[in-house]
Amino acid sequence: MTKNQNIPLVVDLDGTLTPTDTLVESVIKVIKQSPVNLLWLPFWLIHGRAGFKEKIAAKSSINVELLPYHELLLDYLRKEKAKGRRIILATAAHQSIAQAVADHIGLFDQVLATERNHNLKGATKLQAIRENVGNSFIYAGDSRADIPIWKAANAAILVNVSQNTGKTVRQHIPIEHQLQGNDSGFTLWFRALRIHQWLKNLLLFVPLLTAFSFFDVSKLISMILAFLAFSLAASATYIGNDIWDLENDRAHPRKQHRPFASGRLSILKGLAASTFLLLVAFTLALMVSSGFTLMLLLYLVLTSIYSLVLKEYMLIDVLMLSLLYTLRILAGSVAIDVSTSSWLLSFSVFIFLSLALVKRCAELVSLEQNGITATRGRDYRVTDLTVLWPLGVGAALSSVVVFGLFINAPETQHLYKTPHLLWLAAIGLIYWLARLWVKTSRGEMHDDPVIYAAKDRGSRITVMCIVAVILAAHFLAVSTPL
Fold it and tell me: Exposed/middle/buried for 41, CB within 10 Å: 0-12, 13-18, 19+?
């Protein structure tokens, strides 16, 4: 180690200094600016990799301050810089990106990067290193593509390399330093797919419950397939949305730790996984029925419109969320071919509007606690809480009113043996919704109220009691003084 202290240290950017791929992120930004640019990408590639990067760089700019960085590597570089060691950034990324990163970090003595018709990758990068640094250098990289450069170096710094790559490098040169992440791939993918969010798709079973058809095996199987189809499709959209919203997530106090925002999962692998999940989801949907497949397609279209456009507009976003929740119930009705009452649809719109507002208020409370005055990527400010509080509570109470009117409706008298028992469910509903809003005001609410309700013991008990009362009202004939 001591003998290497005077040897320059050459550091790669993509995958090494930052775990993400700056070119892929730049392409996504170009598409976000205008989806029409997606059609131009193949024509830009005709000019070669260097020309493609030049074109992309001219049309987009990455906020390097929000990029994720390997902090352990940065700490090591700072220590080496303090010892007087020369440090060079050498990357295949475009010069504008590399220079912006170097200026932001403030550790590099020189920047070698792609510019004009000169793509600094592979042998070209090695040649540039030899011309500007010399034949003696230490190289910090992350992938198998870096092996030719490692072989030409005096020693290697390995950053999150695979076991096979690390073994190959050790056979040729000594290792000066090695940095490895702790998160397992399974754990990261579990978080990226947001399996816990599948709880929302239990709404598909609501028509099965309200029709009291849960003993019908064929309908139950159809609902299970429908649930899996919706859940896999939802996971695909979660991945797509996370990739689409990288910079906004990185500016958020909690969302910045998501797998794609933090760079711990590859964007390209995420896009491949999303495509695969959609194929499986539609295969399962076709096994249910063509009508359900159309409902799933409608859900994906509306979700995409929400993610790409509507979520940036105040109040329109929460209205859209409430409709997406209600759409799940409609999809469940189509899956088992039963009708859905207007009472249920009205109730669901109001209650899910309230839950969507809980989500927004919880986010604003979190931002307020962190000294942030407005959301990034959404048209909300902390001062909006004075309006959102009563709006959300009002929507919650409106759902209870609709439920009360449903209890006295003629069709309810025929469907339930003891409809008056449903008033106990209404009381439980008031308690549960009020509890969610109190927890939100205290700053104890999760980003998603449905997930919070699943984890909160009081909410679980209340919801189970409500379901038990509904079942009792249907099956039991109880004499009441009402």
Answer: middle
DSSP collapsed to 3 states, the chain: CHHHCCCCEEECCECCCECCCHHHHHHHHHHHHCCCHHHHHHHHHCCHHHHHHHHHHHHCCCCCCCCCCCHHHHHHHHHHHHCCCCEEEEEEEEHHHHHHHHHHHCCCCEEEEEECCECCCCHHHHHHHHHHCCCCCEEEECCHHHHHHHHHCCEEEEECCCHHHHHHHHCCCCEEEEECCCCCHHHHHHHHHCHHHHHHHHHHHHHHHHCCCCCCHHHHHHHHHHHHHHHHHHHHHHHHHHHHCHHHHHCCCCHHHCCCCCCCCCHHHHHHHHHHHHHHHHHHHHHHCHHHHHHHHHHHHHHHHHHHCHHHCCCHHHHHHHHHHHHHHHHHHHHHCCCCCHHHHHHHHHHHHHHHHHHHHHHHHHHHHCCCCECCCCCCEHHHHHHHHHHHHHHHHHHHHHHHHHHCCHHHHHHCCCHHHHHHHHHHHHHHHHHHHHHHHCCCCCCCHHHHHHHCHHHHHHHHHHHHHHHHHHHCCCCCCC
Return the structure tokens found at 427. 């009381």
Start-to-end CA distance of the chain, whole Å, equals: 86
Neighbouring residues of 300: CB distance < 8 A, sequence distance ≥ 6? 233, 237, 278
**pLDDT one-digit tens code per residue, 387-397:** 999 999 999 99
Tokens 């309700």 belong to residue: 453
The residue type at 85: R
User: Is the pLDDT reported for residue 213 higher than 70?
Assistant: yes
CA–chain centroid gap for 402, Å, is: 34
| Inter-residue contact 145 to 166 (CB < 8 Å) | no
User: Lowest-pLDDT range, 270-284, 342-356, 364-378, 463-477?
Assistant: 364-378
Q: Cβ(64)–Cβ(8) under 8 Å?
A: no
The tens digit of pLDDT for each residue in 416-425 reads 888 888 899 9
With cut-offs at 50, 70 and 90, classify the pLDDT of residue 248: confident
Strand partners, 116: none
Q: Work out the average pLDDT over 214-220.
A: 84
What's the gap between Cα 296 and its chain centre?
20
